[in-house]
Give the backbone structure.
Amino acid sequence: MSTAPTIQPRKTFSEEHYRSCNPPHKHEASQELSNKMGTKRRRQRSCTRRRKPHKKSSSSKGDGNNSDEEEIPEEIFYRMIRRILVAVGVPMGLGLALLYVFGVVREQNLWEVPMWLPFSTTFITFGASLFGIVYGALSTSLDPNNKGSVLGLEEAQKHWDEMWEEEKTRE
């Protein structure tokens, strides 16, 4: 007759052993810190951890830091993103819609769509979508007070000329 194996109870570890093996979580650490320090001391410590504003270094061109670049203000950045999304989304959506229409026309036997037509329309609309990234960035007004025109043709022309002039001066 065989005996059934006995199940041993699990070992329990003390709280000290658990803390020595596992680092405290963020909320536990902050709770311990608040117990050790007064609120005034915590405020002083948190004030010293604040990020200091970025200072531009006046470095030469040879050490890799490009001091000519400036940060784009948030308002202009979001305006640029909106323009890029529209300039990319409209041609891409048109291309996908045309693919769907060509498929439905072919399934319903309304017209035998030649293979080159969906291929060329997809190529053109997706290419225009790729061009939309560049156009969306170049057509954005960099003046925070001036939103620019709806299409941004004047801004795009101005930025295009500035970009090529800058390229010529580098050479």
